[in-house]
Every structure is written in C-alpha cells, then in structure tokens.
Amino acid sequence: MKDLIEFIAKSLVTYPDQVEVREYGNGDHIRIELSVARDDMGRVIGKSGKVANSIRLLLRVAAEREGKQATLDVVEPQ
Fold this sequence. Notes:
Elements: H1 2-12, E1 20-24, E2 29-35, H2 41-45, H3 50-65, E3 69-75
Parallel strand pairs: 2-3
Antiparallel strand pairs: 1-2
C-alpha cells in the first residue's frame, strides 16, 4: 500500500524526488503519512481536498482487498 501511495503522489507532483511516504502500524490497521514539497501541497490536496480524498478512497479499497484498514495523512514537509 505504501508503494501505491508513492506511485500516485509522484505522478501528481512537480518534484517527485521530494515525495516521502512513511507507514506505521501493524496487524489490521495501518497509518500512512505522505509528505511532499511545499509547492506541491496544493496538487496533492486539491480543491476542497478532493484529490486527497480520492487517494484515501483508493487506499481504503486496496487495504480492504488485503483484509486491513488504512488511513492517509498528508503532513507538512520538514
């Protein structure tokens, strides 16, 4: 699932080398944090959060296929 989020994010952004995806948790619940360049935050979040919600939906479907639950957080770049 981490690879899926990384692939989607790198396809959307201008600076794909600054995409960072971290996966936390084990068992049935996984939390994924996505960090992109400050200039790319708007591309990943989208107008009214539509892009981010679409990515979350894809993640949720991929997780359900594996019998897990997953959440996505878009975090500020460090």
